[in-house]
Design the sequence.
């Protein structure tokens, strides 16, 4: 077997790749793919070569993971709390004050990260870039797939945050009345299905009971017949025993 070329841990290599200055990404990606191919890992090499170069906004978000990880962790925690609180509010288990509190914490986490990005990027931190970065951070904090990529510093695209929370962060806003109406319709549908199921089970149980009753009647008749036969046999036995005694 041909010896494999020395290739360091792939995940470590990818972490280092996304942490590079943006202008170095393409060359480093292609070099890594070439080393993997030389190590006879052609499939992985093809996947690495196909990796998309991050946009400027995505790269800025990724760079914060390395320089300000604690702030990223704080943002992701705030986003998760906001999502949970809004879901609870939709079901009447959280009030407006609670939603406002966690929303404020999420906004504060985004502001702290934007301040860190402004210091880190210097003149590249234009108002337009910071606005798009803020949108990306907010959306990533509440979207399951994007938050994993942000946590690992591997975003490739900027995201659009719409509305004021996780329920609207990556999709068009929906009114609470729509949610309530949808939930009510789903409840009615579920109850109808449950009623049909129970009626079916009741019918099956009634049929089984009738069959059991009929079977019981047959068995009772057979038992009565056997009892009568047993009584006749007992009578014959008694007569035979009397006759035997008389002969003695």
Sequence:
């Amino acid at each position: 077997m041909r010896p494999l070329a020395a290739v360091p841990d792939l995940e470590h290599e990818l972490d280092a790749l996304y942490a590079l200055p943006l202008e170095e990404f393409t060359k480093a990606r292609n070099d890594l793919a070439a080393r993997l191919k030389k190590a006879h890992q052609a499939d992985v090499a093809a996947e690495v070569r196909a990796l998309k170069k991050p946009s400027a906004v995505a790269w800025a978000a990724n760079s914060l993971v390395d320089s300000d990880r604690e702030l990223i962790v704080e943002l992701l925690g705030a986003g998760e709390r906001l999502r949970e609180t809004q879901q609870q509010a939709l079901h009447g288990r959280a009030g407006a004050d609670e939603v406002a509190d966690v929303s404020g914490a999420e906004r504060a986490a985004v502001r702290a990260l934007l301040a860190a990005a402004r210091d880190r990027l210097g003149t590249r931190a234009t108002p337009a870039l910071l606005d798009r970065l803020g949108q990306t951070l907010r959306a990533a904090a509440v979207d399951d797939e994007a938050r994993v990529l942000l946590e690992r510093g591997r975003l490739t695209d900027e995201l659009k945050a719409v509305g004021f929370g996780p329920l609207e962060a990556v999709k068009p806003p929906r009114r609470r009345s729509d949610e309530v109406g949808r939930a009510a319709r789903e409840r009615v549908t579920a109850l109808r299905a449950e009623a049909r199921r129970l009626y079916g089970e009741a019918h099956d149980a009634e049929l089984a009971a009738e069959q059991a009753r009929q079977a019981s009647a047959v068995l009772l008749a057979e038992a009565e017949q056997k009892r009568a036969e047993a009584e006749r046999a007992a009578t014959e036995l008694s007569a035979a025993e009397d006759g035997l005694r008389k002969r003695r």
Summary: The first helix runs from residue 10 to 19. Residues 56-174 form one domain. The chain is about 75% helix and 0% strand.
